[in-house]
Description:
Elements: H1 7-36, H2 43-51, H3 57-71, H4 77-109
Helix pairs in contact: 1-3, 1-4, 3-4
Amino acid sequence: MNDPSTKPITILALMQVAVILVGILAVKLCSKLWVNSALQLPAVMRFVLNQGILLVAIPLVWVGVTTYVRSLTGARQIVRTGLILLGIALVVLLAAFMVIATVGQLWVAFGGSV
């Protein structure tokens, strides 16, 4: 089980889960500003507050598929590399989603434009 090829998978999965959890906490904090300003919560914020923890299924599925494909002896190297790049893309996309859910809606509500 001390396979060095699982190290990047583990690191990326932990990063994905950390982005999700930090994003949920940030949205919860910013939702307090919405309540204080007497504005209705946007749909993205309500989704993250109510069902945000379900986003953890994304890293779980990615880890399962990536580990399975990397364990196959006949899998091509480009597929293995592509799955690692997909993990990196998931970190970036999850971070962008959480930033939009947190700050983007506040920016628009308080006079900014996107």
